[in-house]
């Protein structure tokens, strides 16, 4: 599965898993191989950041913040690779899916030590220059609060569900597209028996000259959608007009704000361990909502959250 290649220095061994499939995914995004290799190479520093996740994973951004790297356990990597053919098929059927675009899975061994696995994906929060708020949404309440950073702090936090109370996502005419795409993507994840994924969201206020009069910016700066053969096919694939912006697949423009939206963490299956965790949490948190529920309930609840918090 892994094709080892020489590391940048002696004692490093870098492996690439499912290389041809991920090469196709990168090509489908118009990502040049030299750009991808440069992002993984030793030439530029990585940006490590603090996460509010309960997992023991480490998180990094490439120096240009275009690519997101996350360490993964061997089991999660096996799940991702097992689901990869269906993931590719889903993206072919729905080219404007909100699922995070996986770009590669790699292993790293240092000085013949234990292998570390990591995934590379396109960052949902790119470009990040004017982003004002970031959220990780699961549609539940237990452990879904983060203490905000003190005013004036340089720390960038990703907030959670309870931090979002009293707020809405104002998408205007694009709301119906968003609800439909969330339904398509969560149905796909339910069929894979996957749960515990998140909807990442970020907000960026549009400047006055970026707002279309009386309508969403999307209709003013939209670029042509390539590949659809007919209006019927386009509707079946749930295509939309994409904004003329980097990372367009994860961007929707409302009347006043630009929203960065993407579904991440696709490798947790509802096996015996998660079923036992569900029973324990049912006893531990009676009457409260938590993340470890059946994939069908998880998908339905997240879609209900999105419907209740959009306009």
Gap from first CA to last CA? 45 Å
**What is the CA-based Rg, rounded?**
20 Å
Classification by helices and strands: alpha+beta
- The CATH architecture of the largest domain is 2-Layer Sandwich
Strand order across the largest sheet? 1-2-6-7-5-4-3
Oligomer: single chain
Number of helices: 8
The poorly predicted ranges are: 1-8, 213-228
The CATH homologous superfamily of the largest domain: 2-Layer Sandwich
- The shape is globular
Number of domains: 2
Give the ordered list of helices and strands: EEHHEEEHEEEHEHHEEHH
Beta-strand content bin: 15-25%
Number of strands: 11
The largest β sheet comes out as: 7 strands, antiparallel
The CATH C-level class name of the largest domain: Alpha Beta
What average pLDDT do the residues reach? 87
Portion of residues within helices: 25-40%
- What would the CATH topology of the largest domain be? Phosphatidylinositol Phosphate Kinase Iibeta, Chain: A, domain 2
Q: Describe it for me?
A:
- With 311 residues, the protein is of the alpha+beta class.
- It folds into 2 domains: 2-122, 2-Layer Sandwich (Phosphatidylinositol Phosphate Kinase II Beta); 133-308, 2-Layer Sandwich (Phosphatidylinositol Phosphate Kinase Iibeta, Chain: A, domain 2).
- It contains 8 helices and 11 strands.
- It has helices at 19-28, 33-40, 74-93, 175-191, 218-221, 231-236, 272-284, 295-308, and strands spanning 2-6, 12-17, 47-48, 59-61, 67-72, 102-110, 116-122, 133-137, 198-205, 251-253, 257-264.
- A 7-stranded antiparallel β-sheet has the order 1-2-6-7-5-4-3. It has a 4-stranded antiparallel β-sheet with strand order 8-9-11-10, with no helix packed on it.
- Helix 4 (175-191) runs antiparallel to helix 8.
- It is globular and about 55 Å long.
- The termini are far apart.
- Keywords: ATP-binding, Kinase, Nucleotide-binding, Transferase.
